[in-house]
Amino acid sequence: MKKLKIASIPGDGIGKEVVPAAIDVLKAVSEIHGGLSFEFMDFPYSCEYYLEHGSMMPEDGLKRLKDFDSIFLGAVGNAKLVPDHISLWGLLIKLRREFEQQINIRPAKLLNGVRSPLVNPKDFDLIVVRENSEGEYSEVGGRIFREEDEIAIQNNIFSRKGTERAMHYAFDLAAKRNKHVTSATKSNGIVHSMPFWDEVFKDVAKNYPEIETDSQHIDALSAFFVTHPDKFDVIVASNLFGDILTDLGAAIMGSIGIAPAGNINCNGKYPSMFEPVHGSAPDIYGKGIANPIGQIWTAKMMLDHHGENEIGNVLLDVVECTTADGIMTPDIGGKHSTEEVTEEIIKRLKEKA
Ligand SMILES: NC(=O)C1=CN([C@@H]2O[C@H](COP(=O)(O)OP(=O)(O)OC[C@H]3O[C@@H](n4cnc5c(N)ncnc54)[C@H](O)[C@@H]3O)[C@@H](O)[C@H]2O)C=CC1
Ligand SMILES: CC(=O)C(=O)O
Ligand SMILES: [K+]
Ligand SMILES: [Mn+2]
């Protein structure tokens, strides 16, 4: 029996609704699989934890998490309790960095039964490889002077190693898919980091003669996500560009509530972390209507990561049968609750056994 030790961090807001839902689904996955079991341990790290303890996680938090096979996270952020930059940098971004999860992979494709807001979305199936450890998300900079003289400086960090790593990841992924990589750039407006990004892209591409490439400025690329999403296979993007593009990717799928993501540690030293693209959605928290599919699809990515693609594909098929039959939360046009959708997915999974 293969056993995966999973650290679960529901975090804030709807994270506390969708993580338990997805864990119930994973327990059903284990039942029908027969040779796979999970040991979940819950960690309460969140903005409420911060109010009580003065930090988003304990001093030895990283040590407590580091020996798990994966981390399964919901969302972080409750701006009523803790400013967002403090909560995110104290937990989500801290884990991404300390555990060297340098790549964030975020697929976007149409699910059966889920209506895209695009009039003619065609059959898009793309994946964004987002650099996850540097770029525009940087602590370098500062603020000086006061009032009308105040100045804020935010430096972006682009290392050759980090940039190459993300690009190699994207090319390797494209080799297993439709053999096309698009680079998200902005070298017409950003004069140091983005021309550098373009140069590294050209250099890395030379190692993959069988992969087609193109390079698009992020503004035009955003527009193409709306007009021709079916033209893309793999897109490689910096931390911020990838962040923005993947909410857009989620939107054209039909809702940010269904988009999954994986923060991948590539060197095997630390666990990878799986969390949906969406945040804590304070506007719907407590209403029981959060879409659990983003978190459940994220669980599928965690299964894939541990070599369980076969059961992962079964799980996504079951999710699609459920949406195809109209059993959905209100964000994608349904009338059902988080719990009803989750129960239906579990019921259908068990019917597969
Ligand atoms: N990775 C993370 O943990 C992230 C955390 N955040 C944090 O979350 C908080 C809220 O941020 P927002 O910018 O409002 O983004 P958000 O993703 O939480 O919500 C944006 C909109 O999408 C809806 N939505 C999100 N997830 C949904 C789901 N599963 N089902 C149905 N509807 C859903 C929300 O109701 C809201 O209208 C902030 O504190 C922010 O910093 C935001 C993005 C990512
Ligand atoms: C913070 C955020 O929005 C993200 O990492 O996706
Ligand atoms: K999240
Ligand atoms: Mn985001």
From TrEMBL:
SMART domains for the chain: Iso_dh
Reaction it catalyzes: (R)-malate + NAD(+) = pyruvate + CO2 + NADH
Keywords noted in UniProt: Manganese, Metal-binding, NAD, Oxidoreductase
EC number of the protein: 1.1.1.83
Gene Ontology terms, MF aspect: tartrate dehydrogenase activity
Family annotation (InterPro entries): ICDH/IPMDH, IsoCit/isopropylmalate_DH_CS, IsoPropMal-DH-like_dom, TTC_DH
Gene3D superfamilies reported for this sequence: Isopropylmalate Dehydrogenase (3.40.718.10)
Domain Isopropylmalate dehydrogenase-like, residue spans: 5-345
Listed cofactors: Mg(2+); Mn(2+)
PROSITE patterns for this protein: IDH_IMDH
Keyword flag Nucleus: no
Protein name: D-malate dehydrogenase (decarboxylating)
